[in-house]
Amino acid sequence: MSGATVTTVSSNGTYSFTKPNRESITLLAGLGVEGDVHAGVTVKHRSRVAQDPTQPNLRQVHLIQAELFDDVAGAGFEVAPGDLGENVTTRGIDLLALPTGTLLRLGAEAVVEVTGLRNPCAQIDDFRHGLLKQVVGRDENGEIVRKAGIMGVVLTGGEVRPGDLVRAELPTGPHRPLERV
Predict the structure, then answer these.
(1) Cβ atoms of 49 and 71 closer than 8 Å
(2) How many whole angstroms separate alpha carbon 24 and alpha carbon 129?
(3) Helices assigned H by DSSP within 36-168
(4) CA pseudo-torsion sign 13, 17, 23, 29
(5) What is the C-alpha to C-alpha distance for residues 179 and 158, in angstroms, rounded to an integer?
(6) Is 61 in contact with 32 (CB distance < 8 Å)?
(7) Largest CA distance in the chain
(8) What is the distance between the alpha carbons of residues 33 and 28, in angstroms, rounded to a whole number?
């Protein structure tokens, strides 16, 4: 995992599928990305708010590995950082292989605890028709495989910029695979 970096950071203060790229974002402990519509102690994603607005926000920060964009480009889909609504785009670390509870150190100060997988929705097909099948599939056992990134909560705040190093600290004890959150 050495050599893993942040390639792009994105945020949006209003609800929209994509998020504009920024020079930097500030992560706030217990809240998420400063000024982002999904920041908060309780859940902010509309579908989850409709279910129970008092749920804890386990989706404060959305991270995607840039390698996904390379993969979908091979299938004819042009997707750029921020297009799928992520806050942090990385390169050089297999985010999807990390266990629940992994600590991601982003830049000099910020620490994000990985809570689970993003559950891609039909909005992805509204963005690029057919893209949903590229980011959700099934493995050889018929189990659903989600590839549209991971979610986390901010433990320690700090500024995050493109070029910052990403360091992963795996949890002690038995590792629990990521599940959708």
Answers:
(1) no
(2) 30
(3) 46-51, 67-73, 123-127, 132-135
(4) positive
(5) 27
(6) yes
(7) 42
(8) 6
User: Quick count: other Cβ atoms within 10 Å of Cβ 79?
Assistant: 22
**DSSP letter at 133?**
H
pLDDT in tens, 19-75: 999 999 999 999 999 999 999 999 988 888 889 999 999 999 999 999 999 999 999
Buried b vs exposed e over 30-65: b needs ≥16 C-beta within 10 Å?
A: ebbbeebbbbeeebbbeebeeeeeeeebebbbbbbb
Q: Could you tell me which residues are beta bridge partners of residue 63?
A: 88, 150
Strands (E), the chain: 5-10, 21-22, 25-28, 32-33, 61-65, 88-91, 103-106, 110-117, 136-138, 144-146, 150-156, 158-160, 166-169
Query: Is the pTM higher than 0.85?
Result: yes
Residues 30, 153 contacting (CB under 8 angstroms):
yes
